[in-house]
Amino acid sequence: MAAESSPPGGVPERRSPVYWFVGLTILALLAAFLLPAVKQPLEYHDFADHRHAHGIDNFLDVVSNVGFLIFGVLGLFIIGKGRACFERPTERWPYVTFFIGLVLTALGSGYYHLAPNNETLFWDRLPMTIAFMGLVAAQIVDRISVRAGLVLLPPALLIGAASVIYWLVTERLGAGNVIPYGILQAYSVLVVLLLAILNPSRYTRGSDIYWVFAWYALAKVLETFDGEVLALNAMVSGHSLKHVAAAFAGFSVCRMLSKRTLREAGRD
Fold it and tell me: Does 225 map to a domain?
């Protein structure tokens, strides 16, 4: 895996070992199947801000999802208008998937927060798996192999959807098991982080991906301290601000795509 090859154009390609990727994937699959089942806690749906405004229940938790819509559409615009640098046209599809996931997350999360329960939560989580898997595939394309990233995208989307469908089916059967979905989310974050650390991108601005993690980490903190944030400022809850922070992770990807240039030719 560490050997050099000469792609079209005569530029040597240097690939770092990716055994860790295979090993991490195997560990994630084993954990999803072997860890004890955990039901979705019903208190998860009891968010701090229940205020009604303009005919909308849980108003700020609903409308704060608009950031996903804005940056999802912006990303699709950047790609569609040719303002993103791609060595090959096919490389755009994982990023298109990511931004479509953001747009659908805006709709799904907004719908969920109108009446939070397990059934509506399904429509929040399903589009998030689309965004997660799109970003994972995009980083594989940028940092390991174009062919591998594109080939892995469809099965990754199916696995992501399956984790959410499995969770809802088990909840309906009275058992409930959110573990596979939770592992999928953690796996996605860890894979992208390790790809960023261990495999340099073929493009400039590759380090911009760390801003995605910064916004994601902030979103998790705000989600955890939902009520405390609302009590502190009496205007907006941690969960509403979580939506804003998570949406800015999408903005970081938009900025990266619009500013990057090709650093190294011919990786597949």
Answer: yes
Amino acid at 46: D
Residue 117, pLDDT score: 97
What are the pLDDT digits (tens) for 150-166? 999 999 999 999 999 99
Phi, psi of 4 (to 5 degrees): -90, 150
Number of domains into which the chain is organized: 1
Q: 226-233 vs 238-259: helix axis angle to the nearest 10? A: 100
42 falls within a domain: no
Structure confidence by residue, pLDDT tens digits, 103-122: 999 999 999 999 999 999 99
Interhelix angle 209-224/179-198, rounded to 10 degrees, is 150
Q: Is residue 186 part of a domain?
A: yes
Cα angle for residues 13, 22, 92 (degrees, 5° grid) = 55
Cα four-point dihedral sign 70, 138, 104, 108: negative
Query: 3 pLDDT exceeds 70?
Result: no
Which pLDDT value is given to residue 6? 38
CATH of the domain at 144: 1.20.1070
What is d(CA 81, CA 86) in angstroms, rounded to the nearest whole number?
A: 12
Q: Give CA–CA dist 221/135, Å, rounded.
A: 22
Assigned domain for 20 exists? no
User: Do residues 153 and 134 touch, judged by C-beta distance below 8 A?
Assistant: yes
- Predicted TM-score (pTM) of the model is 0.90
> What domain range is 147 assigned to?
58-259
Which DSSP helix (H) or strand (E) runs through 4? strand 4-5
HSE value, Cβ hemisphere, 13 Å, CA-based, for 181: 26
Q: What is the pLDDT of residues 174-222, one digit of tens each?
A: 999 999 999 999 999 999 999 999 999 999 999 999 999 999 999 999 9
Is the Cβ–Cβ distance between 54 and 233 less than 8 Å?
Answer: no
